[in-house]
Here is the input.
Amino acid sequence: MQAITYIQVQELVTHIPITKLQVAYEFLRDLAGEKPQTVLPQIEFMFLPFKEQQHLLSEQAAELVKHYKDTQEERELWQGGDLGDY
Here is the structure.
């Protein structure tokens, strides 16, 4: 069997669809004997179905609207005024 170089593995990885990269990474990590790491929430989000991503983002947007309405007076106090006042 012919020896495989790191460059060959890197070239092969560039042809893997982005949806399969997580699986390929975990497989290579297991082969290397590394301990599993926690997956970043951003990566988990990226692999969610589009409808679920939309739902989560709309929930977060609603929470932010509420937060900004609740803190409006406080923000106006420290954001208001003219720069020359300081």
Remarks:
- The chain has two domains: 1-47, 48-80.
- The radius of gyration is 23 Å.
- The mean pLDDT is 85.
- The chain has five helices and no strands.
